[in-house]
Design a protein that fits this description.
Elements: H1 2-15, E1 22-26, E2 38-44, E3 62-68, E4 71-77, H2 88-101, E5 105-114, E6 124-132, H3 160-172, E7 177-184, H4 193-201, E8 206-208, H5 212-220, E9 224-234, H6 245-269
Parallel strand pairs: 1-4, 1-5, 5-9, 6-7, 7-8
Antiparallel strand pairs: 2-3, 3-4, 5-8, 6-9
Helix pairs in contact: 1-2, 2-5, 3-6
């Protein structure tokens, strides 16, 4: 993996990805942040040596470099998921590349279902902690200790200072920002009524199919990390209705302006 990381990093440096400070992973329906970026370089994933290729139709598959609020950023427009057939090492490979390029802070967005019934679709949730239900770890491979601490501490995977700033920004801008626990499952099928009940019992406030692997690797590499979920549906097992993916994407887009405000204002402070 070290050889692959080196090849990918050198390719991107030659393309002009020059010492970004902040890495951003854009989730489902959250691509409009790019309208606020002064883009300098962009390249498709399938042009980057050793990079996976996004296979979900609404994930674009580009790595973008530019300036946002005076900071150099590298942005993943489209992410990878275990449900696409990738390993957790594949899913998190871009985070390792970001770190080698110079990123010190990782900001993540995603779409999630609300397990906590006090949260409503269209709301945002700041992730305070998570539960990994993907059945494996992105650190479970031979040679991981050459890239960072094998037994990575996860007592506080989401940076307290970044989360404090997110909450302050939300309050100042009148944004309803919940705080809670995100459970990450494999997918791509949605959960059954019994599974939603289980998730509530074990302490989840929201559920999705991403983010946790990237956060684990960010901690493994010593990056500061924070993540925000757009709650696109309400997962009430006693009144469960069939999910429409188009509706989920539309709800994510509706909440997007608030997400953009949070990210832009936070980046000003980093």
């Amino acid at each position: 993996m070290i050889k692959q990381i080196t090849e990918s990093t050198e390719y991107l440096k030659q393309k002009g990805f020059d010492k970004p400070e902040i890495g951003i992973i854009l989730g489902t329906g959250l691509g409009q942040l790019l309208n606020h970026v002064a883009i300098e370089v962009q390249t498709s994933y399938n042009h980057i040596p050793n990079f996976p290729t996004a296979t979900v139709e609404f994930h674009k598959g580009k790595l973008i470099y530019g300036t946002l609020e005076g900071k150099k950023v590298v942005i993943m427009q489209g992410r990878f998921h275990v449900y696409e057939g990738y390993s957790l090492q594949d899913v998190t490979f871009p985070v390792r590349i970001m770190e080698k390029l110079g990123v010190l802070t990782l900001l993540v967005s995603n779409a999630a279902g609300a397990i906590n019934l006090n949260f409503k679709k269209g709301d945002l949730m700041l992730i305070d902690d998570h539960i990994n239900l993907q059945g494996n770890s992105p650190l479970a491979f031979k040679g991981v200790a050459e890239l960072g601490t094998r037994f990575t501490d996860m007592s506080a995977p989401y940076d307290a200072d970044l989360n404090y700033k997110f909450e302050a920004i939300a309050k100042t801008n009148g944004i309803n920002l919940h705080k809670g626990v995100y459970a990450s499952v494999v997918g791509p099928q949605l959960e059954t009524r019994a599974e939603y009940r289980m998730l509530k019992i074990i302490g989840a406030d929201a559920v999705g199919m991403s983010t946790v692997p990237e956060i684990i690797v960010a901690n493994h590499l010593g990056l500061k990390a924070a993540a925000v979920s757009v709650l696109t549906d309400e997962c009430d097992p006693d009144h469960l209705e069939p999910i429409n993916i188009d509706d989920i994407i539309a709800m994510a887009a509706k909440a997007e302006p608030h997400m953009i405000t949070l990210f832009k204002e936070l980046i000003k402070t980093i």
